[in-house]
Specification:
InterPro entries: Lipocalin-like (IPR024311)
CATH topology: Lipocalin
Helix content: under 10%
Number of helices: 1
Organism: Flavobacterium zepuense
Radius of gyration: 14 Å
Domain Lipocalin-like: 20-99
Shape: globular
Structural class: mainly beta
Protein name: Lipocalin-like domain-containing protein
CATH class: Mainly Beta
CATH architecture: Beta Barrel
Distance between the termini: 27 Å
Order of helices and strands: EHEEEEEEEEEE
Largest sheet: 8 strands, antiparallel, barrel
Length: 141
């Protein structure tokens, strides 16, 4: 789901942001009908290509990187800019080397079940006229 820009700094959840600082991998991507339906994630690749991907989150400047590592999928790596709001919204921009302020569209997901070693990002996508939740399970490396 494409969305314009980020929330203001006053509404950021600093504790949640610091909690996801570090290196992570997506251990699973799930959604209803995933055995039969393909979903393109973040306008990059098939959602299953994100399993095993590497993510780095830097909490003091809200930057990082994401890299697809699945050898049967297209190679992709990009800097990212991200925030977590007090409402549990995870805002993500994939900048692909552009300055973040020049990237006007991004993604709004929900952050759920955050622990020291895992968390989930949930995206609502439309598939066949119905909205389904795509859940990305992150595990700390």
């Amino acid at each position: 789901m494409l969305v314009v820009l980020f929330a203001s700094c006053g509404s950021l959840d600093q504790k949640a942001q610091v909690g996801i600082k570090g290196n992570w991998t997506i251990s699973n991507v799930s959604y209803p009908g995933s055995d039969y339906i393909k979903v393109t994630s973040f306008d990059v690749a098939d959602s299953k290509c994100f399993v095993g991907s590497s993510w780095n989150f830097i909490s003091n400047n809200n930057k990082g990187t994401m890299t697809l590592t699945n050898s049967s999928c297209p190679a992709f790596s990009s800097p990212i800019v991200w925030t977590v709001t007090k409402e549990g919204t995870f805002n993500l921009k994939i900048t692909e080397g552009e300055k973040a302020k020049r990237v006007t569209q991004g993604y709004i997901l929900q952050i759920r079940n955050q622990t020291e070693s895992s968390f989930q990002l949930v995206d609502n996508v439309t598939v066949g006229g119905k909205t389904v939740e795509v859940t990305y399970q992150f595990s700390k490396i």
